[in-house]
Amino acid sequence: MITDFIAEHGYLAVFIGSVLEGETVLVLAGFAAHQNYLSFLPIVVCGLCGGWLGDMFFFLLGRRHGAAILNRHPEWSPRVHKVNDWLVRYQAGVIVGVRFMYGLRVAGPIAIGMSDIPAWRFIMFNLIGSTVWACLFTAAGYLFGHTLEWLFADIKRYEEAALLWILAAAAVLVLFRHIRKRSTRPS
Q1: Nearest Cα residue to 54 out of 101, 17, 84
Q2: pLDDT, tens digit, for every residue of 36-48?
Q3: Structure confidence at residue 138 (pLDDT)
Q4: Number of domains the chain is built from
Q5: pLDDT top residue among 102 and 140
Q6: Virtual torsion, Cα 117, 118, 120, 122, nearest 10 deg
Q7: Which UniProt keywords apply (predicted)?
Q8: Helices (H), the chain
Q9: 145: left (phi over 0), alpha (psi -120 to 50) or beta
Q10: In the prediction, which pLDDT does 39 show?
């Protein structure tokens, strides 16, 4: 049922999810790797590629249409200014770390794209950040599975229910973020 779907489409889901959001998808995939439905290294590679490509898209979007995007989304302006302030002092660290900063997953690469940072520099540090990010969140999911197994020695009996609960919790989290984002938009 759901486990067959994960085994068949899991890597594609990790790639697509990493382009769009990523953390929840990677944690779930890491858990699936612990349960032997997916393999750890391909998850990391799919997450790394998806995360890197997503950030490259937003960087290039910021490079080409940054001002128009800010006009369309004025609520991003404080975040963009914050990223620009950080870029002056911590350029490489901001490029690597922006994906770990809540609320800056899209606005961060757009802001960096609007700056005078050369594309080759962003490409290099974004690759480093994507690698660390994919490894870290996949490992967190794997360790979560290991911890559950340790807590519940008979986890195989409950894995379908656990996966459904985790997917439901992820869906509620995504819905909550979407509703929160929509409610903060100016009318």
Answers
A1: 17
A2: 889 999 999 999 9
A3: 93
A4: 1
A5: 140
A6: 20
A7: Membrane, Transmembrane, Transmembrane helix
A8: 2-20, 23-34, 40-72, 77-97, 107-114, 119-151, 155-184
A9: alpha
A10: 92
* 35, HSE (Cβ side, Cα atoms, 13 Å): 26
Q: Nearest CA to 184 among 107, 111, 112?
A: 107
CB proximity list for 21: less than 8 A, separation 6 or greater:
105, 174
**3-class SS at 149?**
helix
Question: Which of 34, 36, 42, 56 is CA-nearest to residue 13?
Answer: 42
Note the pLDDT of residue 156.
Answer: 62
Determine phi and psi for 84, rounding to 5 degrees.
-60, -40
Domain of 32, in residue numbers: 2-184
Q: Where are the beta strands (DSSP E) in the chain?
A: none
Tokens of 135: 């490894």
Cα atoms in the Cβ-side hemisphere of radius 13 Å centred on 146: 8
